[in-house]
Amino acid sequence: MGESNVSLNFTAEMTNAARGWAEMIRLEKEFDSGLKGIATHSAAASRAMADHMGQTTSGIKQAASQMDQFTGSVKNWIGSFVGIGTAVAAVKAIAAEMEKTRQLQKEMMGVSLSNEQLALKIANLPGRRDVSKEGLGKVNSLINQVALSGGVSQQTASNILFYSESAMGSNASALSAATQIAQFAGPAGLTPQEVRQIPKLFNLTGADTAAKQQQVMAKIYQAAGGSIASTGEYLEPFIGQATNFMSRGFTLDESLARMSSAVDVTGSVADAGSMSERLAAITSGRNAKALKYLERAAKKQGKDFRAMSDPQRMAMVEGLWDTADAAGMRDVFKEELDSRGYEAMLRLFSPQGKKKYTESLAAISAANPADLVSMTGQFKGTLMSSAAKGEVKTSVLEGTIGDQTASIVKFNKAIDEVQRIAHARSDSLGDFASMALLPSGMEKNMIADILVRGNLKAAMEKEKAAAGESERYGRLGGLLGDYTKGGPGTLSLNPKLAGQIYSETGGLTEMTQWQPTDAAGQQNYPQGVGPVQSAVKSWIDMADKMDKSTEAIERLTQALERQRQPGQFVEN
Amino acid sequence: MIKITLTKQNTPKLMADKLPAIIKAALIETAKLWRRDALPTHFATGAAVRYRYQKRTDKYQNRKRRMGNPPAMVYSGKARQRMLADRREPTGTAKKITLKVASFGFFNYTYKTWPQGHTMAKEVAAMTPEDLKKIHADTQRLVTEKINAARVFETQVLRG
């Protein structure tokens, strides 16, 4: 028997891999040049601000103008940088911060404006644009209306109206919101600076939802243990989504309980918002296919799906889910509805999600029925007492208004964030290459990390300085609704989250590391190379939301696809 | 003056030179995995159907039946033993890795079976679509792991 060998060849088709790689290198180059652009422009803007700020009105104007140019440059640059989704989101967030800084400059200028000047500003707002004598007369009558409704001064009334119209447009809704705010702020005798915080706290998006938001806010404020900064900043998505739920016909308690349950299963307020929203959307027949399927299912039960309310629809889908789950056929929802809706159902209709929902609903319904008057009173009282202590609440910048150097500090911090993101992004090439594999929730968290952490951390630092250790922990516990001890008793959030907060001294780092788990407690987001198609799709969804060029998205998708296929194997 | 220190690690540009070596290493490991996991299945019961071996002659099959019906490709078992015991390192480049498995001369002989004859060397190297899929996935995973494990830094200072 002569000896011999059997040979097998394993070959990699390098052309495709190399092409994909070249595309990645090109994108990296764009990223580099963008960073250089940021460094140059921010330095110029910072220098200008340092030179001019706080000296003369014209100096401030020049600084603001520099900021304008800078913001514009960042935006232009973003336009050419659409390929790298995450970096775009990060820089976009920074650009938004810059925009806020610029707004603050304008606000600073506005502090010393007289009532007439404010009226002129209002008359100049988009949608009004009438600075004739008649136009100013109309504006003054509106200011009077607001002033009389809340018993506030003309100056405060004009400030409120200006902010409402800036946020909501020059229309009846803005006037109605301004009136509500004046009624709220009037008896408390708030300063113009404090009044400015109110529209933000109430998350003004439309007059019809303002009242609902006030209810939600009051309830959450109680759960937050009295931290206005936390209520306004951190729980903003919570409020927005709960309000949205209410607009679908769910009760306040149901909305809060559903959000609370979502927070428990996702570990993040922002994700909870999007997940519960997705659940509500999918159970009400989000797309034509889903609607058809649900209508068919309802017909089998002898119901008319179209005639049902959203809560009824959710109850019906939950029942369908339970039946399918028991039969081991829940995959049918993935095919018939949509994959993201399926993910939401998988989490929120899980035993853990349901248990949490039931518990939260009971806790929320039992404690503190909607006594809006006393809640609002308490809210105002705390606002006043905080004001008396001289605390800064929910300000865009750290430090007090008028502290000009704070802007420069913020600027530098923004640049640090760019650096951090760049570092994190290029931390490993695997991540870079599989960037599209990140679930959108993580993207959101990264952005939330930038936008929210700074403000919340600053607020917590102040609380830390003001209060002793035990009290601080009490406040932190209250912030998340201490699950284990009962806390303020109105809202139960994620105990794991609360534990993380306890272990971190005022840090949110842990909280922003989203680690979704399924019912069995296993992490279930794609690790490394995962299901590319769905991941790329979710990434494209995210990019679409950013209103960016689909052509560039296509380019990167192809590059990623090529990169994912380094080899083709043959045998002989 | 603003100074930004940008530390980059394992970016595509930095990794460009290392990529061929990584792919080569990944292919070598994949080949070893094939030898460990897939090769023994070519001698297992049911392999003839799975890998579509050519039907042997009646004379040969009768002979095997008398021996107690050993699995496909196994007669005395010496070739199987020799092939499964081979632990040589695969060789080649990032484009092509060759895995050699020691066998006997009759593996390269084309037997005149009906309808088109068969060569056992080709049958040993046969792969099902599942095998190919696994090889692809293995390589993909190994490349990603190796890229993630690499540590190439570049520090850049930007001044504005």
Notes on the protein architecture:
The complex is a heterodimer of chains A (572) and B (160). In chain A, helix 1 (14-52) runs antiparallel to helix 20. Chain A has 27 helices and 1 strand. The longest helix of chain A is centred in the first third of the chain and has 39 residues, at 14-52. Helix content of chain A is 71%, strand content 2%. Chain A is an all-alpha fold. Chain A is extended and about 110 Å long. Chain B has 160 residues and is of the alpha+beta class. Chain B is built from 7 helices and 6 strands. Chain B has helices at residues 12-15, 19-38, 47-50, 58-66, 78-85, 120-124, 129-149, and strands at residues 3-9, 91-92, 96-104, 110-111, 118-119, 153-159. A two-stranded antiparallel sheet of chain B has the order 1-6. In chain B, strands 2-3 form a two-stranded antiparallel ribbon. A two-stranded antiparallel ribbon of chain B has the order 4-5. The radius of gyration of chain B is 23 Å and the shape is elongated. The chains are: A mainly alpha (572), B alpha+beta (160). Chains A and B meet through strand 1, helix 1, helix 20 and helix 21 of A and strand 1, helix 1, helix 2, strand 3 and helix 6 of B. Strand 1 (3-11) of chain A pairs antiparallel with strand 3 of chain B, so a sheet runs across the interface.
Furnish the topology, listing elements before pairings.
The complex is a heterodimer of chains A (572) and B (160).
Chain A (H helix, E strand, L loop, with lengths): L2 E9 L2 H39 L4 H23 L5 H27 L3 H10 L8 H18 L3 H15 L3 H14 L6 H10 L5 H17 L4 H7 L1 H12 L4 H15 L2 H15 L4 H13 L9 H17 L4 H6 L2 H10 L2 H16 L5 H18 L15 H21 L3 H5 L6 H27 L2 H11 L15 H9 L5 H4 L19 H14 L4 H14 L9
Chain B lengths: L2 E7 L2 H4 L3 H20 L8 H4 L7 H9 L11 H8 L5 E2 L3 E9 L5 E2 L6 E2 H5 L4 H21 L3 E7 L1
Antiparallel strand pairs in B: 1-6, 2-3, 4-5
Helix pairs in contact in B: 2-7
